[in-house]
Amino acid sequence: MQGIKEIVVVSGKGGTGKTSITGALASLFRDKVVVDCDVDASNLHIIFSPKEILTKKEFIGGKKAKIDGSLCTQCGTCINICRYNAISSEYRVDPLTCEGCGACFYLCPQKAVDFSSRISGYYYISKIASNDPLIFAELLPGEENSGKLVALLKNEARELAKSSSKRLILIDGPPGIGCPVISSLSGSNFALIITEPTLSGEHDLKRITELTHHFKIKAGVVVNKSDLNPYCVQQIQEYCEYEAISFLGEIPYDAKITEAQRNLKTILDFAPECESSWAIKVIHNKLQRILEEL
Amino acid sequence: MKIAFASGKGGTGKTTVSVNLAYNLSSHRKVQYLDCDVEEPNGHIFLRPRIEENKISKVIVPVVDQEKCTGCGECTSHCQFKALVLIQKEVLVFPQLCHGCGLCARICPTGAISEGEREIGYVEKGKALGDIDFVQGLLNVGEPMAVPLIQDVKSCYGEADVYIIDAPPGTSCPVVKTIIDVDLVVMVTEPTPFGLHDLRIAVSSAKALDKPVGVVINRDKGEFKQLLDYLKGNQLMVLTKIPEDKEFARQYAKGNLIIKALPTYKNKFDELFHNIETMLRG
Questions:
Q1: In which band, very low, low, confident or very high, does the pLDDT at A2 lie, cut at 50, 70 and 90?
Q2: Which CATH number applies to B2-57+124-281: 3.40.449.10, 3.40.50.300, 3.40.640.10, 1.10.1040.10?
């Protein structure tokens, strides 16, 4: 295998089991950097309970405007130019509506607008039981720029993989198909799509698959909770064939996966011989073969 | 009354709860359902709307007249989103990074920048089961800008007694935009460590906007003490609990409304709305 490879676990629909499966795969792969790119609601660190936080860094997102009342003459310029209606008739900027474009700052005739950076979150480089690094972040509530934070985490992971001779970067992605997902997929080698055999799961699978095609990233599909609707699993298999993406396997609806989570363990550490663990081992083998061919 | 259904964590049952509540209310109230999860809207699967109107959603982007542009770099140095880049005295536009603020067009000293439009997705309107007014946004695949489309969905408020707003997962800008004008945020959670972790973040986002918050516990399966302690410690009211039930999950998988397929669940949604009204009366 040449160079460092990146696998991103995505799903479109939330709650299909991305994090549980990423966690399980992380305990099977060796020499990897694990990254949690679901920065809105990161969960991977919960099951790994890192034994050591090596670094904590500030994430500086965008800037926000703030009007200095003592300089403001209430001329109305800023209210007129702000396209986000973030400035009230009392000349106060609502920080949750302000998109940080700076138009009011640059165009205020009195120079009464302050426009400075602020901390939008934190990110951590930690060490998990296998001694591999886990990178995760917390975006402060209501903050923007999750795509930018994802890009930052991926850069950190690449640097770290290079400097510590790791061969794989395993990424837990966010749900959806928008900005943070696009950022998670950017520059990666393979998208592992986790879906479920429900009409919603299937609908969202199609949109995330289109997204991987759009960015020309190879993809493979795993169906979680597969015994919920065998007919739907078959439909998904046919869809994969039609779209020429690999169908990598199915994992049954298993209460043990939730139990493992409640015990803060991956399913492979909690019940290594259960049906789901075996299914994940098979998927892991297939992924290794795919990585070698990439 | 505007009620948003949010969660932090994905897949906890936001859509299930909101479509079933909408349908349950539709027998005696005028209901409008707005799906603001524009990246992956799923409400239509259950409410089966007949779409009557389809409107393209657009955002503003700069258009550079290369004849007038002198390559001075004013626009590129002012743009906060790096949507304009100067390469060898020529300005290139990256439309997907543009937030449409209009600053570049205003400050260009030679008037070389005008504003054009770009499609990001579309808004569909129609009538769904139970005569519910249905609105959803669909983001184009490959498009990062969800927020302006959510704004367009929310500009479709019609006449209704109750507005049910299905929010996207997460806690950042798309969620803020979705819940900013609602009367109550209902957090749908599940009794797991992931569910609780993300509930905490989602609740603090809603609190930052001064929104009252109620909680629905989905897939309830005996006691999960940490969740109960958290709810108690933060004085969060449990509006209803829906038990873990594989038959429920099977019906969901087929795209069926639970209260039609399993009518015994109707009382859960009666209870939910009763408690919502009690909360809003203060």
A1: low
A2: 3.40.50.300
Q: What pLDDT does residue B172 have?
A: 86
CATH number for position A215: 3.40.50.300
* CATH 3.30.70.20 domain span(s) along chain B: 66-111
Number of Cβ within a 10 Å radius of residue A244:
9
Average pLDDT value for residue range B256-272: 98
Separation between Cα atoms, residue A50 and residue A56, nearest integer Å: 13
Q: Hey, which residues 173-232 in chain A have their CB within 8 Å of chain B?
A: 174-183, 196-201, 203-204, 207, 210-211, 214-215, 225, 228-229, 232
- Report the predicted TM-score, pTM, of the whole model to 2 decimal places: 0.95
Burial of B248-267, coded b for 16+ CB within 10 Å and e otherwise, reads bbbbbbebebbbbeeeebee
pLDDT tens digit sequence for A144-159: 778 899 999 999 999 9
Q: For domain B66-111, give the CATH number.
A: 3.30.70.20
Surface of B (37-76) touching A: CB under 8 A: 37-40, 42, 45, 60
CA nearest neighbour of A200 among B246, B15, B168, B33: B15
pLDDT digits (tens, 9 = 90+) for B117-147: 999 999 999 999 999 999 999 999 999 999 9
> A292, A259, A253: which is closest to A275 by C-alpha?
A253
User: Is pLDDT of A1 > 50?
Assistant: no
**B144 contact A CB<8A:** yes
Q: How far apart are CA A62 and CA A75, in angstroms?
A: 26
The minimum CA-CA distance between A103 and chain B, rounded to whole Å, is 5
Residues of A in contact with B192 (CB under 8 A): 258, 261-262
CATH code assigned at A88: 3.30.70.20
